[in-house]
């Protein structure tokens, strides 16, 4: 038998101490009514040491064979834990891990809210972990695909994209695999679903603009000049909308080799990136005027509003592609990769954490090359 001493935060700020038992695939808990007070409380050090010493003594007696019933300590079987309560504990453990990025944690926080919404939707907010099975998982996937709507930046709502649903399915598996390892559930019910019931990863379609299309877009006149300039600046720097919106004049510096953008932490990855500014990029920088280093370079509206402008511009330029702000980043990646054939350098310019992510652009270029060669078929 394995017995671990654990704590759980209470609403009043204290932490309750409990024993976590695991034996032959079964897990249960013992709550000896011992508590830790916040460090700021009077005599906290002595009180907490006394409580923890008692917990250690109880654990030692249990390992020697003394049963909890002899001192009246309550036991709670793991399979009777509320799903919502277990997810809260899982989220706290995740947030305590300093090695996880805010984006990674945000995905789990969103998933947990979705699961709680689903529990409310099926009128089972107090569902327990022993009810997590194939039907629960299948129902959640249907709810995510057909019922759930996320909020958009302009205050509206929309259904989740297939790629987003696939991402949350992966996060759900991570969470339920942990529950299975803890013995709280017998297995991750995802493995009980048929292939047709699972959400398949969509084919990665990354539209980018060719040099000729970029020139056509440059010629389009629009009253939304800031959106146009920011998008074309993205095409020559690879910066995301989120980073452009937060870009300040203080991020633009003069180095020994020329002007560069230095961002200490990108919005999505929280990783630093340095991007040299070529003449094409500099051409789409607005006039600084009397702006300070703390002023934003581009006064952008919502991402949805900017994308609507770009969609209209692309239509007027005769570009039959789905153009959004992220198309600028894709265009920078593919055009730079085509010009340099240096995937490692392009990966660093984009701030990718892995070259494997950048490899997708190389595959897109190869598909275009194959399509071009195939056009020769039947000519001779």
If you compute it from the alpha carbons, what radius of gyration comes out, rounded to the nearest whole angstrom? 27 Å
CATH architecture of the largest domain: Orthogonal Bundle
Helix fraction? Answer: 40-55%
- Give the quaternary arrangement of the chains: single chain
Tally of individual helices: 13
Order of strands across the biggest sheet? Answer: 1-2-3-4
Write down the overall geometry: elongated
Distance between the termini: 77 Å
| Sheet having the most strands | 4 strands, antiparallel
Order of helices and strands: EEEHEHHHEEHHHHEEEHHHHH
Describe the protein's architecture and organization.
It is a single chain. The protein is α+β, with helices and mostly antiparallel strands. It has three domains: 63 residues, no CATH class; 113 residues, DNA polymerase, domain 1; 165 residues, Intergrase catalytic core (hpI Integrase, Chain A, Orthogonal Bundle). The protein is 46% helix and 13% strand. It contains 13 helices and nine strands. The strands form three sheets. The chain has a four-stranded antiparallel sheet. A three-stranded antiparallel sheet has the order 7-8-9. It has a two-stranded antiparallel sheet with strand order 5-6. β7 and β8 form a beta hairpin. α11 packs antiparallel against α12. The longest helix has 21 residues. It is elongated. This is Phage integrase family protein. One of its GO terms (biological process) is DNA integration. Belongs to the 'phage' integrase family. InterPro entries: Arm-DNA-bind_5, DNA_brk_join_enz, Integrase-like_cat_sf, Integrase_catalytic, Integrase_recombinase_N, SAM-like_dom, Tyrosine_recombinase_XerCD.
